[in-house]
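ok so i was messing around last nite and threw this chain in just to see what happens. nothing serious, just curious
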Amino acid sequence: MLKDISKVSASGSSVVCDYPDEFTFTDKAAERTQKQLMMAEKAGEKMKASYSKNELEEVLFCAGFKLYENLSPDEITEKYFNEYNLKNQDSIITAFDNVNYCYAVKE
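result:
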């Protein structure tokens, strides 16, 4: 998919996505991640892939992209939900466990 996107993208184009981390399909996955996997499978949408940061960088590189930002769930929560959480202590929002955000640019 990334190679196809790269073919129709100009140099400097950005790709932003989320992806399951390397612990998603292990016993280290958070409880809600395990539930998400079960629900997806029951819906006929079995999740099949997960990536470490290094694996993701390699996939992006092979498609002509460079990884510029990679955020863990804790970093996502801090960057995008911290202000809300400070003002709404009774309804804290956190990023989904075992899901990272990726920002890459075509070279």
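not much to say yet. The first strand starts at residue 14 and ends at 20.
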